[in-house]
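Deliverable D4.2, example record:
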Amino acid sequence: MKEKLNRITELIIGAAIEVHKELGPGLLESAYEACLMFELANRGLKAEKQKELPVVYRGVRIDCGYRLDLLVEDLVIVELKAVERLERIHEAQVISYLKLSGKHVGLLINFNVLQLVKGLKRIVRDFPE
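Output generated by the structure prediction step:
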């Protein structure tokens, strides 16, 4: 499982780099989301955008309006940003999404940087064997 997750995140990062090379910084998050969906599909990855994420409270599923920007291959959560800089709250958001969804790996990607590598953060929660 670890190798599969690593491969998927590599493909997502490659797709994000391609989008960033083409568009550069300064656009809305929604533009990067649409273009990244296109790139992921071109790489043969199944991705869902704006996927509902309910909160389970005391065994009851409650729709609180949370949505994952992208869920790739039903395994990796991708949270997109177009902000001046990533803050700790953005990382906390991804960690919360991982907990709520039961997923193990998330990518936090900020497109509003000159080099995308400076806007990437991989977050792992309880990595499966």
